[in-house]
Design brief:
alpha/beta; Rossmann fold; Arc Repressor Mutant, subunit A; 3 domains; 12 strands; about 50% helix; about 15% strand
Length: about 375
């Protein structure tokens, strides 16, 4: 068993990656394991090929192209992949577990907070199209706002171009959400050089860095605990081994820290939180009721039935009374009554005849008898 950490070279030297790695190393040390850290995909793959399925590879990144390349290479290994991400909207070439922040709830709270402050027109500034985290935030903003009330400003090549594009139309918005604190500070600096008309622009961001606390009157930020994220990445590795999870998703809660960039207006969650916006439809929506209730109930009963229960259901199909059931199933009449009552309750009916009618509507006696014979054959082989 081993634990490998593979970082995108461009992400490795950022403050967020450092904090995650600190959490990884501290939790790993507590569990008496020493992770191997790589920034080269080929080197990490070379080690992973020598490891068995009890080994995990943690991926730290922000670039979707890098993630796809790394997972394509690691898909040849038997190791399990654990990614640190908030949002993935594409199919990946290998199974994986994920640890991240609940950006759905985070963006929902941000929109709710801004509405409580009387802000209705919101810009999301600085979205990197190659960043899975940025794309996730953009998707969540679209989810909770009407299309006429928001605009997303992408940073295609140069962040300053993105800022310039926003600044030319800044008076159309009363709030701007940046994808991270550092961009929020840069945007605040740009606003000093390009003051807006009218009321102050509210600025919010994500990640809650130390700089967000220290800059000016402070930047209102949605907290992300990267240290805890690092710890839980390691916990995910050990939980998989302990409980046999094939894969898991663990989303950490985020909290809004209110500061001067939104005039320190405190956030009290609304009783009517934003709900997902309805998507336009080309045709009228219709409600279709599918008559699957009895089929679903039967499937649940059959999936959990032992041999005796299968025989009881066959007896119901045949119209046997309790005495005949007891003879066919080699049980007492009282046990037969008990078993029938359990089946009736599961089907939601009061009478034995009603249960029999439902069975007759969906099950052929011959097919059920074949299953019973198959089960009896297996049972006799075990006894022999």
């Amino acid at each position: 068993m081993a634990l490998i950490v593979l970082c995108d070279q461009k992400y490795r030297h950022g403050a967020w990656c450092d904090t995650k790695i600190r959490g990884i190393m501290d939790e790993a040390s507590r569990r008496r394991i020493q992770p191997q850290i790589y920034t080269n995909i080929s080197a990490a793959k070379e080690l992973a090929l020598k490891c068995d399925e009890d080994t995990s590879v943690i991926l730290l990144f922000d670039s979707m192209p890098w993630l796809y390349e790394a997972m394509s290479e690691l898909s040849e290994c038997r190791t399990h992949i654990i990614i640190s991400a908030n949002y993935i909207d594409v199919a990946l070439p290998a199974p994986y577990s994920m640890v991240g922040t609940d950006i759905d709830a985070a963006m929902r709270s941000m929109v709710d907070y801004l509405r409580s402050c009387g802000k209705r027109h919101i810009a999301l500034v600085g979205v990197n199209p190659n960043s899975c985290n940025d794309n996730g935030r953009a998707a969540m903003l679209k989810k909770y706002m009407h299309i006429d009330d928001y605009r997303i400003f992408y940073a295609e090549d140069n962040m300053m171009d993105c800022f310039d594009e926003f600044l030319t139309v800044q008076d159309s918005f009363d709030a701007a959400i940046c994808t991270n604190d550092l961009l929020a500070i840069c945007l605040s600096e740009q606003l000093k050089e390009h003051p807006r008309a009218g009321e102050k622009l509210f600025i919010l961001s994500h990640t809650d860095t130390v700089m967000a606390k220290l800059y000016g009157e402070g930047i209102t930020s949605m907290t992300v605990n990267f240290y805890d994220c690092g710890r839980i990445l390691v916990e995910t590795h050990f939980n998989r081994l302990k409980y046999g999870f094939a894969r898991s998703v663990n989303l950490l809660p985020a909290q809004l820290k209110v500061r001067g960039s939104t005039e320190n207006k405190q956030y009290i969650p609304s009783k009517n939180m934003p709900v997902p916006m309805q998507q336009p439809s080309l045709s009228e929506k219709k409600t279709i009721n599918l008559p699957t209730g009895n089929v679903s109930r039967l499937e649940r009963i059959l999936a959990s039935s032992d041999l005796v229960n299968l025989k009881i259901m066959y007896c119901l199909l045949c119209g046997f009374n309790y005495e005949r059931m007891s003879e066919f199933c080699f049980i007492s009449a009282e046990t037969a009554r008990y078993r029938v009552r359990k089946i009736r309750n599961a089907l939601g009916v009061q009478k034995r005849s009603d249960a029999a009618d439902i069975l007759c509507a969906y099950i052929k006696k011959e097919s059920l008898l074949a299953i019973i014979s198959e089960q009896e054959e297996k049972h006799n082989k075990i006894i022999v």
